[in-house]
Amino acid sequence: MYKGEIPFDRDGKSPLSYDGYTDIVWKDNYTFDAKLKMVSMLRGRSSAQFKWVDENKIEYIMFMKDMELLINNAVIVRGHVEGKWTFIKRGQNYGITYLDVQDDEEDGRKRKLNFRNDL
After folding, report:
1. Does the residue 118 lie in any domain?
2. pTM exceeds cut of 0.90
3. 23 within some domain
4. Residue 117 lies in a domain
5. What share of the chain is helix, strand, coil (3-state, %, to 5)?
6. In sequence order, what are the residues at sequence separation of 6 or more whose Cβ sits closer than 8 angstroms to the Cβ of residue 92?
7. What is the pLDDT of residues 42-95, one digit of tens each?
8. What's the domain count of the chain?
């Protein structure tokens, strides 16, 4: 898991995708449980990102690499994913990544989705 701080808006409620804003509140990274809905895809100068929204209308950004891993490991129902999340930094940008625990179908034991080697 990324061990640094994450930029949030001045109210400390909404995470920011980069630290170029004014009135930033920095928070230590943490994990959180949420049901998120994927609402759009965004194009930057050098990246593609996905916008997710939670039940409180807080927006989160996910990088394409993390979306690929989520699609291969999560249960997605009509654009919604429920599970455990954390923040990640890629270059100068910040986003979320999926950290849920799933049942292993072969032996019924819980296993961590250990696809994040660079955290």
Report:
1. no
2. no
3. yes
4. no
5. 10, 50, 45
6. 18, 19
7. 987 777 899 999 999 999 999 999 999 899 889 999 999 999 999 999 988 999
8. 1
